[in-house]
Amino acid sequence: xxxAFSELxxxxxxxxxxxxxxxxxxxxxxxxxxxxxxxxxxxxxxxxAAMAHERRTSARIGELLAACESDKALLxxxxxxxxxxxxxxxxxxxxxxxxxxxxxxAKITSEAxxxxxxxxxxxxxEHFRPTLQKVIDLTREKALCIGSPTGEPYDALLDxxxxxxxxxxxxxxxxxxxxxxxxxxxxxxxxxxxLDASVLKKKVPxxxxxxxxxxxxxxxxxxxxxxxxxxTTHPFCSGMAPGDTRLTTRYTSESxxxxxxxxxxxxxxxxxxxxxxxxxxxxxxxxxAVSLGMHESQSRLWENFxxxxxxxxxxxxxxxxxxxxxxxxxxxxxxxYAAANVxxxxxxxxxxxxxxxxxxxxxxxxxxRAIMNGDLALKDLPGEWNKQFKSLLGVDVPDxxxxxxxxxxxxxxxIGYFPTYTLGNLYAAQFWEAAQxxxxxxxxxxxxxxxxxLLNWLRSNIHAHxxxxxAEELCQRVTGxxxxxxxxxxxxxxxxxxxxxx
Length: 502
Ligand code: ZN
What we know:
Blueprint: H1 3-31, H2 38-56, H3 59-69, H4 72-75, H5 78-96, H6 99-122, H7 125-146, H8 153-161, H9 167-190, H10 206-220, E1 227-231, E2 237-241, E3 244-249, H11 257-275, H12 278-281, H13 292-306, H14 310-323, H15 333-339, H16 357-372, H17 381-393, H18 419-438, H19 442-446, H20 452-461, H21 471-479, H22 486-499
The protein binds zinc ion.
């Protein structure tokens, strides 16, 4: 291995190590930090972040990258060439933005989060509009600094979360999905046969829910020797370091389903983090996740495709009966399978079911793209939101709180982020089909609580590669097909039509 490449890896490893310390501080802040420590914690995290940024953007990294890029012998190794390509991408992204733009964005987005909270509480978009306008203007400036081959500012933003993806490509994938999905949702919601979610709405004590959640996590293959599960208001997963993947979940007293699916979702993210080859490649992109969409595919695969399947519940229902006595003693497999697959039109994205969820995303994608391109003025956003919501989901939005003010993303300047959720669902569906083709007995093993087949398949086909391939390329390699809406629609129609007797 060339000395330039070794030095490059060690410099980047140093920056990553600082980043991992920052993640540990944030995790602590969300879980166990005493409230009075908040002020000093802000100084700790901003110092660590500045140190990591300084190392990531050092001129020495630029020199070493240039040396590696002109070393033909080094680049003959395809895995190293992919590492160098991704390191260049990271370096360019980190160095392209002027420091004062980064500082102005940080300031306005921290203000915007407070204003957004007030506006949402009052359900008053006009209160948020002037601040959001500033966030949008600066985010557009950021997009212009980054630039994109297509010239569309939205693409520069999307590419940060989903490398290689463009708005035009997303639209091409979303268009057939939108029509088929809204037709399916209309059929399901107007069916005379509706599903009953009440069998799982029981007040189960938190310690029982926790015991059940841990059994499920263990069955999924999450290594608790190299990870933890704690409780926070907003569940998350932090794959902060080799051997250290932290998950959080939250418990409610109304139902075991939301906490269970929260745990399985973060568990899916956690399995990806644990499966990346960090122990021998930490610091190299080949030990990192491909994209947000690919990360989301892993969480949704376990949450929705495994967690709402009949095969999973064949094992999980007796497990729930054992962990949570006597709450599920009288519940049958048919009842729990139906309750896990209820479809309902709702206003709030984060409460949406597997089928309607993607319609919420498509709405946001179209609107934020139009705002970025200057085709939609913020003053018209609530009206446009409500009109499109009605045409996609067939119901009238009662107020901005349950409409365009519900998500925190735009106040953070996270534009181009939403599509990655649906891309994740689409990748998950495609992987789910491919895994079953490769292992025809996968579901029958799942019925007995053996979920190892799917995990091993994901380990060797997805996790092992890190960022070697871009998401769509990886999908093509693994499934033999380009990304498409068909597998997700086959999955939803195949499951919901019999359940709803359509
Ligand atoms: Zn997620």
